[in-house]
Each structure stands twice: as C-alpha cells, then as structure tokens.
C-alpha cells in the first residue's frame, strides 16, 4: 500500500482521457488499495478517480458511508462506469483533490442510473440521487479529462431557479 | 510609501458599462508591474464595478498614475486602498439563504439582522430586482457560515413570512472528489 502523488492543476495530464479496464487481476486490486489510501490521505474526499494519480484507466472509488443522512450505496469501487440515464439538475459546490484551495458551483443531474463493474469484473446497476449522483458525475468527468473548474457557473446563473433539489 | 510584493491593495472601480474596461484596466496594471489576486467584477444598474486585489512593489501613486489615462478615457472612478490579509484565506459557506418578495424598503436589513443575531457570517450576497416594472420582485441570495442548525436559522427567519417575504434556508454541501 502506498499513498500516490495527486496530479494538480494545471498538469496537462488531467485532461487525458482514460482507457477502459480490461484485466481484473491482482495488479488492479493492488492499485485500488493504493488509490483508496490516497483518497483517505486527502482532505475529506468522498471520491477519487485513477487519472488523478496519473493512472489513466477508468477506475473510480466513491465512499459516502460517512454521511448516513445522505442516500448512498456506501463504499463503491466503480470500474468502467457509465451513466445510462440523467434526470433533473441542481447547482452544488464542489472541490477537488486536484484543485487545492478552490471551490466552485457546478450544475449536475440530480438523479442518475449508473452501470459499472466491480473489482472482480462483475457488472452492477445503481440508482443514485443528490450528493452521491453529484460525486459520481464529478469522478466520471476525470475519466474523460474534465475537471469541475471546466463546468463552474456563477451563482447568478441559478438566481431565478426556484425549485431546488434538497 | 513603498509596498512589498506581498502587500495587497484593494482597487475599486466603477463606471458606465462598456466593452473593454477589464482588458484596459488589467493591461495597465500588468504594464506597471502589478500582480492580481481575487476579484469580483459585475454589472450593476448599467455600471460596471470591480473590486480587485492588486499587489505591486511600486508606490500606490505610480499605480494610480498608470491607470489615470484609462480612467479618463473610459470615465472610470478608481480607488486604491491598502488591504490587510491576502490570498488563501477562503472560508467555506455551509448555509444558503434565498429570499424573494415584493420589493419594499427594509427587506435586506430585516433578513440580515436576524442572521446577524444568529451569529451568521455572510460570505457572499447578491441581489437583484426582477419582475415587471410596476410589480418589482426583490431576490436575494446569501451564502455564509453558521454554527446553528438549518432548522434554527429557518425558525429565526419565520417572522419574515408574515412580512410577505419568502425565505428558504438550505445547507451548502461541499463535495470534494
């Protein structure tokens, strides 16, 4: 186990698109363990994506088990994740291990359906909402070389939008 | 007075809105050796307004001299004041308060007085007047920090409803990923 170096803005590698995982072996499991240790070493991150540590494979860890009041699926390892359905939108504040000392408002879908494999290659389907859906969309962006700073909007954008997801 | 590079000034600027204000002002600042920090720039009532952190090794008078031709040409009023503090002092809001109501005097004072009594620290506030000209609607969006629960803040703001003002208090959830 090791804490890996996190790529930080403006490192151009953060814009790289990650490749699908094809082999579900011990090396993958070892990497996932390192990625998890790296996530836990950061300041309160609920998720981390492999390209944030310069490993350009479609691997995400998500863990909202520390937020019992938020609907969530607990600790998840998402391999080759794919969002198959989006619904609703809401603005929320995001930060990122790759963008220290900055937070910004981003509009994300409030309900999603997600398809992903686990560390053994078994496919799962998830229905996610709110905070967890936001976290997944943020992490999946990393796999496509996008950061939340690419999606930041002014709070005024939302000024007249009265119905807000809670 | 000679500033060191780590000393910040706050430049405040207002003038009739038109394209090119930001580029002309920041070019002049760059050419006289200034670094820029955090900024808030927005159009208010047909004016363009800037609040901008500026640091420079040059004396304030030189910076103002460098800006004078631009200010003169674009009709801008500019002030430069010493600023204590600096970069990387962000505070994270944890509560959002949305206020809407038929526009009348006193809404802001009423709402923010209640928040202040609750120890609520306003970090950001923007407001606008929307609706039809004959029936203007005041809309205010506040983000800030408070130790109180959402319920406690909402309770404290209940009297606003009786004054015809709709107030919504919700958490600002920061997602770090």
Automatic annotation (TrEMBL), chain A:
The keyword Iron applies. It comes from the Bacteria. Its cofactor is Fe(2+). Binds 1 Fe(2+) ion. CDD domains: Pep_deformylase (cd00487). Fe cation binds at residues 96, 138, 142. The active site is at residue 139. It catalyses: N-terminal N-formyl-L-methionyl-[peptide] + H2O = N-terminal L-methionyl-[peptide] + formate. One of its GO terms (molecular function) is peptide deformylase activity. SUPFAM superfamilies: Peptide deformylase. Signal peptide: none annotated. Its EC number is 3.5.1.88. The keyword Hydrolase applies. One of its GO terms (biological process) is translation. It holds the Pfam family Pep_deformylase. Keywords: Hydrolase, Iron, Metal-binding, Protein biosynthesis. InterPro entries: Peptide_deformylase (IPR023635), Peptide_deformylase_sf (IPR036821). HAMAP family: Pep_deformylase. NCBIfam families: pept_deformyl (TIGR00079), PRK00150.1-3 (NF001159). Belongs to the polypeptide deformylase family. Removes the formyl group from the N-terminal Met of newly synthesized proteins. Requires at least a dipeptide for an efficient rate of reaction. N-terminal L-methionine is a prerequisite for activity but the enzyme has broad specificity at other positions. This is Peptide deformylase. It comes from Allochromatium humboldtianum. The lineage of its organism: Bacteria, Pseudomonadati, Pseudomonadota, Gammaproteobacteria, Chromatiales.
